[in-house]
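ingest -> validate -> predict -> emit
validate: passed (alphabet ok, no gaps, 242 aa)
predict: started
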Amino acid sequence: MTAQRGTVTRTEEVFDELRAELLNLNGQYAPGQRLKLLDLAQRFSASLSVIREALTRLAEQGLLVATPQRGFSVRELSVPDLADLTQVRVQIESLALRQAVALGDVAWETTVVATHHTLERTPVADDTGQFNEGWSVAHRAFHQALVAGCGSPRLAEIATSLRDCAELYRRWYWVLTDDHARNVPAEHRGLRDLAVGRDADAAVELLTEHIERAPRELIAYANQHDYPRLGADGGLSRSEPG
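emit:
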């Protein structure tokens, strides 16, 4: 039992470090880059099973792609993929939120309010001006709480999984676009109030705009500036604007 807990802990450590590196747009990993299990095992002084489990979890979150016979590679960002992901997210999260508003109990309301309280008091940037990963954790917890009252653990899990898959695109949005007119805290307050106030139609309408805005701005930026460039395969690269 102790050995098993140790393996789980080591997997978590590898997962957390690799996830942070993959979400660092100025880091060492480029879209499409293959990851070598042996190299990672040596780097982390971990077993191949630990590395494989961590990479599998990262693939589940949409940061890596698992290909039979080829292993794992960094997901290539593309406008078609972003558009498809956004459409599906709107459909699934809207359904989950609408059911949560109808079925959620007082405990659900309490969790929505509590997670929003944490989110609103967690700064987006840390003391050095860098992105605060704690905000990302609080943001995920709030959106997870919104749909948790839907009455279907499977539906809630799918909604959260799709949101996780969009995390890398959100990082590109924050880095590349100039969307200063957006008031994200106000959007989150609105979602809290409409959900707890049981206004399903207005909550879904706000959630839809909340989900669609970043992809819309990012796609517009890619089309207008050719940055990151769209290659022949639709992948987004890190090349400098020409």
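The two ends are 56 Å apart (CA to CA).
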